[in-house]
# Entry
Amino acid sequence: MNRKVIIYDDDTDLLEVCSLILTARNFEVVLRDKCTEIIHDIATHRPDVILMDNWIPDIGGVKAIQLVKSSSEYRHIPVIFFTAHNNAEELAAEAGADYSLQKPFDISELEMVVADAVRRK
# Structure
């Protein structure tokens, strides 16, 4: 059975690249360009990992992660926060994310962080 990841980012190029990389690693990938329905998305797709951009339309990445982590049903799902800001780790900690990636990130960084998140789940 494939692991499932939901990626939230309004950058369609980044969504496509991440999707290609993770699909090649046997992940089922769900792409979203906004996080309006994040709890519905999680309930519907039951991801093993969530990747969340900081500047995602509607409520933003920090608030979206806080919403997920405040849910007793979904707080166990690892969240990888990514941003182009220099303070990625600080923002990730503020949000309650489990991991952070600084944009632009290497394919190997993405693979390593996602693999670690899945292992620890």
Summary: The chain has one domain: 3-120. Residues 15 and 92 are 20 Å apart (CA to CA).
